[in-house]
Amino acid sequence: MLREDVTDAIRAAVFAELAAVGFSRMSIEGIARRAGVGKTAVYRRWKSKLSLVVDVVGAVAVQGLPAPDTGSLYGDVRALLEVASHALRHPVASQVIPDLLVEAVRHPEIADTLKAALLDSQQGVVAQIVQAAAGRGELPADTDPDRALDLVLGPLYWRLVVVRTEPPRGYLDDLARATVAALTA
Amino acid sequence: MLREDVTDAIRAAVFAELAAVGFSRMSIEGIARRAGVGKTAVYRRWKSKLSLVVDVVGAVAVQGLPAPDTGSLYGDVRALLEVASHALRHPVASQVIPDLLVEAVRHPEIADTLKAALLDSQQGVVAQIVQAAAGRGELPADTDPDRALDLVLGPLYWRLVVVRTEPPRGYLDDLARATVAALTA
């Protein structure tokens, strides 16, 4: 394998191992085996399991997310819920994120990486949605973007990641409508 | 120690170990050591770590939660948010629940126990709040209690367990107001 291919194989193996066995049970040996490389190939690049996971998960953050721009608060919230719904239903995300949230309590490096990879991009998107809505007069200019993020993503996260029961047909339309009402209350 | 005292010490040790090291790293040895009993005292009562955790966490479910009855939808939602906020800020709950949610993906017994211990009681409380509000004409009679639970607890759970930043002063009042708007949208 080329050097870049080895690195890519290790990165892919980290996500697969995180989803399959979780951070605490995951080992460098298991990652190397899944990637089809030797343990030394991993240790040459990363000094520990923690630094490997922080680096690999952190790299996802760079991609960022474009903010929807549909011309209405309802449209933007509905579009964001669609993207978030796909992301939270992805088997890797739905197992890796809660697992790393647990580890984040014990490892500040993981907390910082998760914050950068998940929250900062979502906060940026919601802040743009709120700003656009304020510009159209749909929301007050002093709307708190953190509170907006809680109201937009909280119910969907709770349903898909905590409760884990399939929402009824039309759920995202309904949730977008309820969220707009909450934001403008 | 009396036989019941041993059982109580083991139960307390399970929660402490879950919070300190998490389910996957937790061992019967560690639980026994923390409880000040021998390993055989644990194995005499429970056949495995999994059955021990399922039994101990499941016992919490029996206690249940009384539904608030303040006479208004806003008052009931605000009261529930107060209780949930205290529960979710408790260090044991804030580490044990996310940890067990992760394990629930791999162990159906944990999923069932968590559902009984956490969701069923919360669902029962929200269903009673919704029913009382419908009786007063504050909500339509066909309000979906599962959707109501998502809207009531989702934003608070997201903020306190996922984002983990301190909400501003007056957050619960504001959240209750926003939630009532979402429920009645």
From TrEMBL, chains A, B:
GO molecular function: DNA-binding transcription factor activity; transcription cis-regulatory region binding
Domain HTH tetR-type as annotated: residue spans: 4-64
UniProtKB keywords: DNA-binding, Transcription, Transcription regulation
The UniProt record lists the keyword Transcription: yes
Pfam families: TetR_C_11, TetR_N
Superkingdom of source: Bacteria
Protein name in UniProt: Transcriptional regulator, tetR family
Annotated source species: Streptomyces laurentii
